[in-house]
Amino acid sequence: MTLHPGLSAVAGLIGTWRGEGAGEYPTIDPFAYTEEVTFSDVGKPFLHYMQRTWSPAGAPMHTETGYLRLVDGSSVEFVLAQPTGQAELAEGPLAATADGFTCELASRVSNSASAKQVDGTERRIELAGDVLTTHFAMAAVGVPMTHHLKSVMHRV
Ligand code: HEM
């Protein structure tokens, strides 16, 4: 399958990544997790994204899925569905680096009636060769924008 030309700047994401993460928030106890992420080319001008995480004991933790789209080759739209009742519409610029890119996304969030209130999120995605680093912050449950997650994954 030929990759859509509009996706060339993010072609390096395609594949499966696995690694370790750490989470915290002022309202909860810090925690560690293992993360696996897959970006798939589906022959269209967007990538399909699937994420799963596990506790150190191997129990399933958070999972999320979505679509990553490039606008004009330099701006990212990442639409994400959370099983906890939030939908994130994350947007921001992509900056090329020597061996990948960095991408800073800020999102608008919709919350279901039963979801914990999330007012906004910020994601930073760094691709450097075979290392994918993610940062996630959120304004949620009455707390202003604050770091929640960081993970470092390698291509598998
Ligand atoms: C709380 C893990 C991603 C929003 C928590 C907690 C854990 C956790 C262990 C504390 C216990 C609990 O309430 O379940 C993770 C992991 C993630 C992840 C491993 C992915 C790697 C997200 C995302 C969002 C989010 C993407 C929002 C879109 C929240 C909220 C709370 C929370 C709102 C509740 C805080 C509170 O009640 O004080 N998370 N989370 N999390 N997380 Fe995450």
UniProtKB/TrEMBL annotation:
InterPro entries named in the record: Calycin, Nitrobindin, THAP4-like_heme-bd
Keyword Iron set for record: yes
Task: Name the SUPFAM superfamilies on file.
Answer: Lipocalins
Ranges for domain THAP4-like heme-binding: 7-155
This protein's source sits in the domain of life called Bacteria
Q: Which keywords appear in this protein's UniProt record, sorted alphabetically?
A: Heme, Iron, Isomerase, Metal-binding
Q: Which GO terms describe its molecular function?
A: isomerase activity
Q: Which Pfam families match?
A: THAP4_heme-bd (PF08768)
Q: What is this protein called?
A: Peroxynitrite isomerase
Record organism: Glutamicibacter soli
